[in-house]
Amino acid sequence: MTERPRSRVQSVDRAALMLGALAESDSSGLGLADLAAHLGVARSTVHAMLRTLEAHGLVAEVPGPRFVLGTGLIRLGDIASSQLPIADLARPVLSALAQATGLTTRLAIADDGFPVFVAKVDGPGAVRFTTPLGSRESPNTSAAGKIILADLTEARVRELVHEVGLPKRTQRTITTITRLLDELARVRAQGYAVDDEEDLEGVFCVAAGVRDRADRLVGAVSTTGIKSEQRARSAADLGAVVREHADRLAARLGH
Amino acid sequence: MTERPRSRVQSVDRAALMLGALAESDSSGLGLADLAAHLGVARSTVHAMLRTLEAHGLVAEVPGPRFVLGTGLIRLGDIASSQLPIADLARPVLSALAQATGLTTRLAIADDGFPVFVAKVDGPGAVRFTTPLGSRESPNTSAAGKIILADLTEARVRELVHEVGLPKRTQRTITTITRLLDELARVRAQGYAVDDEEDLEGVFCVAAGVRDRADRLVGAVSTTGIKSEQRARSAADLGAVVREHADRLAARLGH
DNA sequence: ACGCTCGTTCGGCATTACCGAATGGCTTTC
DNA sequence: GAAAGCCATTCGGTAATGCCGAACGAGCGT
Fold first, then answer.
1. Cα–Cα dist A7/B54, whole Å
2. Strand, coil or helix: B107
3. Cross-chain residue pair A79–B132, CB shorter than 8 Å
4. Which candidate from A47, A55, A133 shows the least CB-CB separation from B74?
5. pLDDT tens, residue by residue, B65-77
6. pLDDT score at A124
7. Residue A47 scores a pLDDT above 50
8. Minimum-distance CB partner of B80 among A55, A71, A88
9. pLDDT band at B7 (very low <50, low <70, confident <90, very high)
10. Which of B49, B179, B182, B222 is deepest in the core (most CB within 10 A)?
């Protein structure tokens, strides 16, 4: 048997893995047999779990028969984000920023050194990005990630980099610790961070940090756009606008 | 022991109940002992489950120590709503309707005769409603609920009413089956539904149905506002605007 | 009409999750 | 400042419970 921490419940573990598998499937969902194969357990086991999850609305059955994530998760996700006080306060600010820039805007919070996006507002008529909410992103390839890293000590940054490396997503991705530290110094100096096609070809981001009344960094406001559509405004101009809205959110937090 | 269906997993059942309890708590979360008392199980049992859920990001620990819903649920909820093709298509339409009316707009889908709101866009500068996503609402007290009921046979409506009754939320709530059937006939005739302070004092809703290419009702577009702030526009005018946007969404579905 | 695959049910075995008591760290209270 | 309370956590033992595999029956596709 593989070593499993003592204080973990096998069936709950498997249930969470099932939800993860359904999350990674496309919108047509997965069949019971697919899930059984994916987890390496008997069909009947998966069946019992699915029915249990279904009773709580975490999973739904669609004609096929196939299974997809249920509307109960929409409810829990909505509540989870409203339980983060910052996310609720941020939405109006994100809306205003989306209006002002025409871009998709998001709020990231720092989760153990990684940016996690917890709220988003799509720009008016903008190309719909597949900007997943709630997933941890690479800290070195996103503007919000740089904001978060810039708040840590150099030692901690080195530690994180040592743990997860500096995944190269595009040609422009920062892949050396030296260049990363330089970049973080620049971020601190100018008060905003830029991701210039470092995560996705043709896509740029600009982000600025948000601090609470104790002056601790609690999150980052971020805008995302298509590079070829954004020739009019300079990075510095956009940085100032994002900075201004991030400050407005900070003010709401009592900064 | 209480009779429990054979094909249900106890620990997964309890895990789901724990998430539900955390969802109903305020943003400060619950302690381990609170959860144990709430479920009537040993602290150590709850502990093992919490750690398992935490490992998957479904639960997070905050200083206290207390536990709240985790960011993983934000991710799953976001994916769950994007796996509903209609929700993704609806968001731009909801945005446009929110702009046109200045009101909060939502999309409900029919879940077994009940309306479940799966997407929302807040109106510009509007009072922020606590409009929870993903929860089942009473079909007789919401405009979207009436749209859904109006699509069912009279026999099925009577069946549903017999099951869950007609909960009286305000003085204006429809509480008799006769008046409800009359109201549903009016909804069918005029093509939109109104909730005039029938769910919440001072709050009104207007909704219109959305049909797919097979002409099946798949959801309802709904607007919500404060009655005292909405004197300018008549219900009929608003109904026409909502109807128009619902049709625009139907067109996107290939209707 | 046949065969396949699907979800579903049902016993039986043993793995596993549950409990209760004991531990140590932390904040609170007098 | 010390002690008392509350907290999350660990650890065996027990039996309840979830897991499996095989058999059933419905629904498609051939």
1. 12
2. strand
3. yes
4. A133
5. 889 999 999 999 9
6. 64
7. yes
8. A71
9. low
10. B222
Contacts of A15 in chain B (CB under 8 A): 9, 12, 15
Question: What are the tokens at A136?
Answer: 């941890």
E strands in chain A:
59-62, 66-69, 104-111, 114-121, 193-196, 203-211, 217-226
Contacts of A84 in chain B (CB under 8 A): 27
Burial class for B49, CB neighbours closer than 10 Å (0-12, 13-18, 19+): buried
Within a 10 A sphere around the Cβ of A150, how many other Cβ atoms? 21
pLDDT in tens, A120-166: 887 765 556 667 788 888 888 999 999 999 999 999 899 889 988 89
B127 part of contact set with chain A, CB < 8 Å? no
DSSP 3-state of B63: coil
Asked whether residue A93, judged by its CB, lies under 7 Å from any atom of the DNA or RNA strand C, the reply is: no
